[in-house]
Amino acid sequence: MTTKIIDKLCCPFDKNDLALQIISQDIHNNVKEGILTCNQCNRYYPVVSGIPIMNPDEYREFKLEIPMLEKWQEYLSNKSFDNFRITSNPDTGNALPEA
Ligand SMILES: [Zn+2]
Questions:
Q1: How far is the CA of 71 from the centre of ligand 1 (A)?
Q2: 93 occurs within a structural domain
Q3: CA gap 51, 32 in Å, rounded
Q4: Which one, out of 4, 35, 43, 89, has a CA that is 20 to 30 A from the CA of 69?
Q5: How far does the centroid of ligand 1 lie from the alpha carbon of residue 32, in Å?
Q6: Is residue 32 part of a domain?
Q7: More confident residue, 1 or 21
Q8: Structural domain of residue 24, as residue ranges?
Q9: Domain count, the chain
Q10: CB–CB of 1/30 below 8 Å?
Q11: Ligand 1 center to 17 CA (angstroms)
């Protein structure tokens, strides 16, 4: 998946532009792993093996995405995810109360 193609992708829910964070690339600079985020609805879409996963919520399984999010954690600092949405970011701080 080239960054040019990813640039053309938009959120399937609200047609907003998606921001891409690249996690790994191949020798041709194609995106192998990454995460697309929509700043309108806060949904995120993982890119796995060069394929953006842009299924509707009901066809996604959060449990299956947890190992991937954990693996990518160092690239996703200060972000947390729930229900396929970003629940906190560095601008708004962590929405969860301190334990
Ligand atoms: Zn959206």
A1: 24
A2: no
A3: 8
A4: 4
A5: 22
A6: yes
A7: 21
A8: 3-88
A9: 1
A10: yes
A11: 8
Quick one: tokens of 32?
Answer: 């192998």
More confident residue, 10 or 2: 10
Q: Is the dihedral of CA 12, 10, 6, 35 positive or negative?
A: negative
pLDDT of residue 4: 82
The span from the CA of 16 to the CA of 37, in Å, is 10
Asked if residue 98 is part of any domain, the answer here is no
Cβ pair 34, 20 in contact under 8 A: yes
From ligand 1's centre to the CA of 27, what distance in Å?
31
Q: How far is the CA of 24 from the centre of ligand 1 (A)?
A: 23
Lowest mean pLDDT among 20-29, 39-48, 66-75: 66-75
Q: What is the Å distance from ligand 1's center to 16 Cα?
A: 6
